[in-house]
Amino acid sequence: MGVPGDPSRSDTPPDEVIYVRPRRAGRAVGAVVAFGAVGALVYSLATNPNVSHAVIRHYTPSPVILDGVRTTVVLAVVSQSIGIAIGIAVALARLSDSFVWRWLAAAYLWVFRGVPLLVQMLIWGNLALLYRRLGVGIPFTAFALFSVDTNAVITNFVASILALSLHEGAYMTEIVRAGVQSVDQGQGDAARALGMPPLLILRRIVLPQAVRVILPPTGSQFINMLKTTSLVSVIAGGDLLTQAENISSTNLRTLELLAVASFWYLLLTSLTSVGQHLLERRWGRGTDSRRGAARPMDLGEMA
Predict the structure, then answer these.
(1) Helix, strand, or coil (residue 147)
(2) How far, in Å, CA of 147 to CA of 126, rounded?
(3) SS3 145
(4) Which single residue of 35, 82, 202, 214 could bond 179 by disulfide (Cβ 3.0 to 4.6 Å)?
């Protein structure tokens, strides 16, 4: 009970205090301005006489564009899968006690994170200029057990996979390393004390817990991979942008075909974002009940 006449005390129990969010007129004004700007942009694009909406409607579901979409998805899935495998292997090498493995991992990261992906794509696409034939033989001699023409092996599609995978593997290395290091070292020590071998500890204890840390950035990397496949167009890899550019080179409708490609990229990334959310929710089940989840920051309170 509060002391009569004391304004600093209140008779209201703490659990009955009602928080009243202050009204901010600036939010309403900002929302109106934002929606007005978006509406004006959409109206301008819809009524622009320089854009042929019939061309966009015609080519959006066309078989050539759909073939490019399939190639883009295949490139992204295969390259991301190989990149994850490379990331796990190189991350373990970075965490190894061996100086040689750590040095090799550091050298890999230095090269494939330092050289732009576009340059890597062009190098792999023009590898035949450096090596006309690829084969296996005795080092430092001209003897070869077998050899094949480089262009027959490193096709544009294979060159795209190599460039995307090796580049992605460098970034996945740091993501996997951060996830592994987030697991309490005491759990590994306890498992070793019970006689578990290192690979079993990694598979049964470390990686299942590290997935919660690895999964969100990996999902973001895959979304980025879907968009990064557009660089394959510089070596005519048959992706979505390549097909759109091939069509626009014949009908000279560049902006319309770019709009078609943008639609499919937005659709693919949106579906991937939904899948990422579902995976994160599945792997995060039970986390809050065991550890207690912190209340997320309400940015609206700071506006």
Answers:
(1) strand
(2) 18
(3) strand
(4) 214
Q: Which residue has the tokens 């990996």?
A: 218
pLDDT at 183: 82
| Inter-residue contact 45 to 51 (CB < 8 Å) | yes
Contact indicator for 126, 234 with CB cutoff of 8 Å = no
State whether residue 247 is helix, strand or coil: helix
53 Cβ contact list (under 8 Å, min separation 6): 46
Helix, strand or coil, per DSSP, at residue 11: coil
What gap in Å lies between CA 208 and CA 197, rounded to an integer?
16
Question: What are residue 239's phi and psi, to 5 degrees?
Answer: -80, -175
Query: What confidence tens digit (pLDDT) does each residue in 228-263 have?
Result: 999 999 988 889 999 999 999 888 888 899 999 999
Torsional sign, CA 282, 283, 288, 289: positive
Q: Do the beta carbons of residue 261 and residue 152 sit within 8 Å?
A: no
Give phi and psi for 149, each to the nearest 5.
-70, 135
Q: Which residues of 211-227 are buried (b: 16+ CB within 10 A; e: fewer)?
A: eebbbbbbbebbbebbe
Q: What tokens does 173 get?
A: 């290395």
Q: What six digits make up the tokens of 144?
A: 């070869």
| Residue spans per domain, the chain | 72-239
Measured CA to CA, the distance from residue 213 to residue 199 in angstroms comes to: 20
Domain 72-239 has CATH 1.10.3720.10: yes
Indicate the DSSP class of residue 239. Answer: -
What letter represents residue 88's amino acid?
A: I
pTM exceeding the 0.70 threshold for the entire prediction = yes
